[in-house]
Amino acid sequence: METTDAKAVVNDGKTKNHDDELMNDSSKRIPTHQKIAYGFGDFGNGFMFDLGQSYLTKFWIDGVGIGAGVVAGIFAFTKIFDAFMDPIAGSVVDNRKKIGKRGKFRPFMMVSAIILGVLTVVTFTMPDGLSMNQKIIYAYAAYMIWGLVYSFTNDPYGSLASVMSRNTQDRSFMATTRQIGSVGAQFIAGVAFIPLTVMIGGSNQRLGYFWAAAIFAAIGVLMFGICYLGTKENVHVNRSKTAQKEGFKDYFKVIFKNGPLGALILMTLFTISAMNTNNQMMVFYAEYNLGNIALQPVINAIMMGCSIAGVFMIPTLTKHFGQKRTAMWSFAIGAAANLLNFVLPDHVVVFVILVTVGYTALAIPNGITWAMVSNAIDYGEWRSGVRKEGITYAAFNFSRKIAQSIAALVSAGVLALTGYVANAHQTAGALRGIKAAMTLYPGVCLVLAAVVIGFLYKLDGERFGKIANDLDHGRWEGGKIGDK
User: What pTM, to 2 d.p., does this model score?
Assistant: First the structure.
């Protein structure tokens, strides 16, 4: 049985290597309040990020009047652009030499989060009097700038976990709090955002979206503030002040020389595109396939509420079954639920049950992924002798951006190809397309994710325990860290 508890390995390592200087002790745990505070970062992140993933498609198509095919192009291009901005953000973070008492990542994260809040409101704004071409240009520009700032927020936030603790149970706990924060924000956005836009704007969709986005963005920045104030960078890292600055060649070296990271990148293409397609299509499925848009917040409340409960199980599941096995079984269950939802006729109760099972089964491995990324960062340091948190996390985040682009292409692309007409009665072909994007696509993606994690991800608990022990004693695969 795989285990993520490396304490025994670490303690054994300290006995055998008592002559080495102990830089860190991976068997020790950090305070619980720090691990909880870390999760507030993704809670705040979700208040801004999930709005764009779930509602910008509908805002631009139904609220602004941009065609579905054009919206698909906007999302696809901007997400690919964002993906290539991640190496820049990661390099800037890693190249930072003057590190004060607040740490390397926290100040970067907080300042960027404030700017991101402002830009979230800008993306849900469309000035009056613009021609259709001008509206499209505005949408492109606003979302591209938003994506750039998001990279400078999310890369240091994701890297922060790896220097808060090296203990595997701490990392599982932080992965849990982060995923609870993420799904919690999705829950609130899924339940409250559309009703809030209607309450504020009535029939004026643009007004409602603007003020609802402003409220959500303000809460998001506040949540990042809690994360900033409540966390601390506890892991001692040997950082060379004379190291050369990194560029794109270092970015690709990180990807191709870190096997566990490569597996996570490939897996994420499937998992994140599946989750985002689900979130984007829910409002369309409720309004047209089920015939009542008011069902959207109700279904999201059930689906995401159960997902939060499932995420709470991550520490227990990974302790008993390990990260890899838990992820694989979750993918299998999620795939079965989504594929059943596709072949069965549209029925509210059946749909809600199966979509809830599928979404919960996806939320669990998505949460575990955060701990896996921190482990991959340590693995990269152990293999190379140089720690590169920012650029390693940027490489992982690259896959998330590409996955988001794929989800946008699937969601808006299916609408365009099947003859969707905004605010109108939909044809049978359009309804089939909405259902396929909502259920069939996530089902296939989860099958592929299970294959990837099963055959390509080889960093199990025992192997990571040995790596953590070496790093605790200042060693990498080729010798003493800092001597290279």
Answer: 0.71
